[in-house]
Amino acid sequence: MQKRFKILHYISLMQPIGRRSLSQALGWTERVLRAEAEFLKQQGLIDIETIGMKLTDEGYQVLEELSPYIKKIFGLNELEQKLQAKLHISRVIVVAGDVDKDEFVKKEMGRAAAQLLRQYVKENDIVTLTGGSTLFEVANMMPENPQLQSVLFVPARGGIGENHEFLANTLVSVMAKKTGGKYRLLHVPDQLSEESYNSLMNEDNIKEVLKVIRSAGIVIHGIGDAKTMALRRNTSKEILALLEEKKAIGEAFGYYFSQDGEIVYKIKTIGLILEDLEKIPHIIAVAGGKSKADAILAVLKQNYKQILVTDEGAAREILSKI
């Protein structure tokens, strides 16, 4: 059952997908996969076409109905409860696997976060989100939902200037397009000089967008490794040395945190600040991988209202540290 569930699960994330690609993703031989795929086709759960395998409506239904039982078999429900109690946060969702070993786990975290958003969002809500590869998967996993036409999506802050597809401005437009909602953009760099920061903060358009962002009912954000994020921002050698001296571990919203959750450095950025989070009802952090356990711990010590969407690798590593 676990094997067939995994096939359905991977197809749902990557469809249409050929047998060779799927067998590589699963680490199985094509012969083993072919036999299982034929069985699932006979049961009416998948279609095998020239362009690849796809789930049928029945396949989606079986996948959804089996998910709670599979989580129980894998021990993920117990893992979620332990982590929630240890972290003292409002909710934890753990998906199977470790994104450090399997990049497709990031897609499943994206799906879980998208489902959470659908649970919490309400009519005329404002949803704000940061950028990054993990949030990219959240946006991609958003199902089309005409009921979200009144929802406004806005970026939580300016862009880092990396891959355009990972920028918050891009992701809010993707979410709005998928759901039929609306979106606003924030056209400012992620990192600013003192002079540029003060100048932009006096702009009426910037003030208006910031007011909208701070009125959000839901914020979805990623968590980064401090050193990785600093290098990605082309941070100066002096600041890199400071972050190393202060033992910065995690990063979120332009803040760098030590292992104790203390803020050791903050970049000049326009967008959400930590004080704004106190007024936002639902805060969803999405991050996974055993290597990010310390960063996740450091950031979550700042705000106990958060909901964490993570993977098994990060969850087990966090529990081993607290």
Automatic annotation (TrEMBL):
SUPFAM superfamilies: NagB/RpiA/CoA transferase-like, Winged helix' DNA-binding domain. Residues 1-68 form the CggR N-terminal DNA binding domain. It comes from the Bacteria. Keywords: DNA-binding, Transcription, Transcription regulation. GO terms for molecular function: carbohydrate binding; DNA binding. Residues 72-320 form the Sugar-binding domain. Belongs to the SorC transcriptional regulatory family. This is Uncharacterized protein. The lineage of its organism: Bacteria, Bacillati, Bacillota, Bacilli, Bacillales.
